[in-house]
Amino acid sequence: MFAPIAAAADEEVIVEGEALAAPDPSRTSASVTVLAADESLARGVGVADLVDTAAGAQVQRLGGLGDFSAVSIRGSTLRQVEVFLDGIPLNPDGADVVNLAELPLSGFSRVEVWRGNAAASFLASPIGGVVNLVSRDAGPAELSASYGSWDSARATAFASHELVPVARGHAGDPVDFQLFADAFHTRGDFVYFDDNATTYNVLDDHFKARDNNDKRQANAHARARAERGDLVFTLLDAPLFREEGLPGATTIPAEAARLQTTRNLAVLAIDAPGAGGSVYHLFREEILDDRAGEVGTGQQWRADRYHTLGLRGRLAFAPAEWVVPTLAAGGRLDQLRTHDLLGNAEEIDHRRASGKLAASADLRFWGDRLTLSPVLIASAIASDTDTVDLATDPRLGVLLRPLPVLALKANAGRYFRPPDLTELYGDQGALEGNDDLLPERGTQADLGGRLDLPPAHWGRLALDLCAFWLWSEDRIIWVQNSQFTLYPVNYGKTGVQGIEAAVDATLIDHLDLAASLTWQKSLNLTAGSSLVNNELPRTPPLDVNLRASLFAGQRARLGYTYTYTAPNYWDGANLYLSAPRHLHGAFLRLQPTVRWPSMELAALNLLDTLVEVVPRDPADEDDADLVVVATEDFMSYPLPGRTFIFTLAWAI
């Protein structure tokens, strides 16, 4: 049953020595999953693959290796999830959809998935949740090289160094440096099933190669960190360059459309015990070359440049043992400049300013076994159209630990997201903006618990179970028309409810096991709408993930993965139903001695699933006929069949 409440709770992220402390899921009321980028994963796994294993998270993909991937949490839209890099937003206030394929997993030590009630220190009010990527820290230098199907190749390098300056015979405060670099290429011309857009005619069905799906990408994370007494100074720069073909929908393929993306995130941060601040600049340029008019509503050749300049700060103090208040504040300037490279049209410039203030506290009672975490976030956003959006979002988290191994959790709160500049004014390829959009507001609640058994001779075990409810008002949905052009509209009211379950275990020192299940029900609750009581687009009712690997120390590891996604509708009218997806994967890694490189062979979509069977007309209950369709994750964007990747990695 749908009825208002939503997520909240706060686990303060602090600096301890050199690294950001990982949140402890058993000591925060928040529904948070910490995913380690460790040896239990195949080296070909990406950020999207790892995030997809978290309960409540569903990743939507536009194809094969390196293709666009984005995450939805608890039935949210893709923009209702904010993605952070070391606590700095890549899409503040959901201003854009972050392509997880641009972020190589080997550059990070872990990924945190906050479902609904992210820590107040993020200064975020996303209706879905937060994904925070934490960079690798000091460690041995490492090189890796991969090659696989469709000329897919990747090379990565990581190095760290600590410098201790010496003056007059005395050692000074240390300065450490980390550098991660990644380069990727693929032709992407995998084979897929094409019904030639004639569902009722099987005579013209055939298999063909995915053309114009090649891509090249290079990125890096460079970080320097210095200590001066209790102060820690951090300088981070993360550049990206990506150039790719846009193959378009299979029924309307594009042979010449190209997209070039350049991004850079620069951050200067200062941290001290109980306090910290940062200033950052995020630049992103997207150049779309569609002079043939293949993927949009006409010929286009344009450059969109996004600038975000932000300032963030936080202060935590403990006036008494039972209370830890925290204050966080931030301001931001956003700019979108659009330049028409095809003609002589005047450059379009849109700007807006925003500010946020978050006040939170952990109130601890009963010998730390009961914690109340109230949060209040106030937001103000002013655009160049002289409109100002104001929001005050309260949250409350409750954590009860009756036993050291058991944590019971409850959260509720309000959330807010204004339409971003692309949703309002975009006109790029298959995306068209709508300047009449209203801000989204949401309410979310969850109730659950975590059982975390201490390590024993048989291993370790953690179990999570949570029920959640999410209501959105004026939810912004990208609607796909028959020409596969997307444009945003407001849905008056929507609801999602569901259950999340997860298990994480290591057994007898030789078996790693992680599994998650998400069941959810979504409805359009807009009274008077022709779509009322329909399921929301791209919200699968059931999602299952399994990872298991057998290992013998560092010498050998055999891994297996399985994902199941239930049929779900791609459109608000519930006319287009996706096929169910059962995808299997496996990998074998060998390393005879620590002086040898590790050698790994991984297979994705191990059973080479290219087609599925679905009802011909899901809207007609009397039509019992079935049809064969391509295995797709997004309407008319097929997934590849069996994919092999061979990787060599050296620790120096």
List the helices and strands and how they pair.
Layout: E1 15-16, E2 19-20, E3 31-36, H1 47-52, E4 57-61, E5 69-73, E6 81-85, E7 88-89, E8 108-115, E9 129-135, E10 142-148, E11 152-163, E12 166-167, E13 170-171, E14 175-186, E15 191-194, E16 206-209, E17 215-228, E18 231-245, E19 258-272, E20 275-290, E21 300-316, E22 323-340, E23 348-365, E24 370-383, E25 388-403, E26 406-417, H2 421-425, E27 427-428, E28 431-432, E29 440-456, E30 459-480, E31 486-507, E32 511-524, E33 542-552, E34 556-565, E35 581-590, E36 598-604, E37 611-615, E38 626-630, E39 632-634, E40 637-638, E41 643-651
Parallel strand pairs: 6-9
Antiparallel strand pairs: 1-2, 3-8, 4-5, 6-7, 8-9, 10-11, 10-41, 11-14, 12-13, 14-17, 15-16, 17-18, 18-19, 19-20, 20-21, 21-22, 22-23, 23-24, 24-25, 25-26, 26-29, 27-28, 29-30, 30-31, 31-32, 32-33, 33-34, 34-35, 35-36, 36-41, 37-38, 39-40
Please provide a written account of the structure.
This protein is an all-beta fold and 652 residues long. The protein has a single domain (15-651), classed as TonB-dependent receptor, beta-barrel domain (Maltoporin, Chain A), CATH 2.40.170.20. The strands form 9 sheets. It has a 22-stranded antiparallel barrel. A hairpin with a 2-residue loop joins β12 and β13. The N and C termini lie far apart (56 Å). Residues 1-19 have low confidence and may be disordered.
